[in-house]
Design brief:
CATH architecture: 3-Layer(aba) Sandwich
Strand content: 15-25%
Structural class: alpha+beta
Strand order of the largest sheet: 1-10-9-4-5-6-2-3
Helix content: 25-40%
Order of helices and strands: HEEEEHHEHEHEEEEH
Shape: globular
Radius of gyration: 19 Å
Largest sheet: 8 strands, mixed
CATH superfamily: Glutaredoxin
Distance between the termini: 42 Å
Low-confidence stretches: none
Length: 192
């Protein structure tokens, strides 16, 4: 038996409120985890210079690190394009960087083509990405880590989240979900 329109609208409103409540609860629980001290990793900037994690904070106490799988991943490119559009907002609250396994010169060329303005660092000679939980036996994984610089200079890992189609970190999936046929097997491309 089909549901009437009022019942469907009420169920949508209930589920939207429940999703928001659960997302807020998830974020609250993540913040309750004990921060884990991490070492001051050394990565390579897009100019090839070695940069310590501590330096990536600039004048901020918080650092958002996007773990990007590199230029071969159209999904990671989609997320990065979105973050680029929000960069000023993100940097008003925290330092923001994108880390990938690509060599610095590859990152620089790809970022220039895409018009990316955020800072990029290569983890190709570091265990940083793996230590943060974004590399396994199958390869690189996309996601985000949040890191905090304490007053005593120690660096602590606060939280992390994985990226994947439909996640809350990319608006495209949610907008497509509102269309007549939903996402409908859509996949991002490098060029349209």
């Amino acid at each position: 038996m089909a549901l009437n329109q009022t019942t469907i609208k009420n169920e949508i409103a209930r589920l939207e409120a429940e999703l928001l409540e659960k997302q807020n609860r998830l974020n609250d629980l993540r913040r309750q985890l004990s921060p884990e001290e991490i070492k001051d990793y050394v990565l390579q900037g897009s100019d090839g210079k070695r940069v310590r994690l501590y330096e990536m904070f600039d004048d901020k106490k918080d650092l958002i690190v996007i773990h990007n799988m590199g230029k071969s991943c159209s999904y990671c490119t989609l997320w990065a394009d979105g973050f680029n559009g929000m960069l000023q907002h993100l940097e008003s609250r925290a330092a923001f960087v994108v880390v990938s396994p690509d060599p610095p010169e590859t990152q620089a060329t790809f970022a220039k083509k895409r018009g990316w303005q955020f800072k990029m660092y290569s983890s190709e000679e570091s265990t940083f990405t793996e230590d943060m939980g974004f590399k396994n036996g199958n390869g690189w994984l996309p996601g985000v880590s949040t890191i905090y610089k304490k007053a005593d200079g120690k660096i602590v890992h606060i939280s992390k989240a994985a990226f994947g189609p439909g996640d809350p970190f990319c608006a495209a999936w949610h907008l497509f979900g509102l269309l007549t046929n939903g996402v409908n097997d859509w996949e991002p491309e490098f060029k349209y």
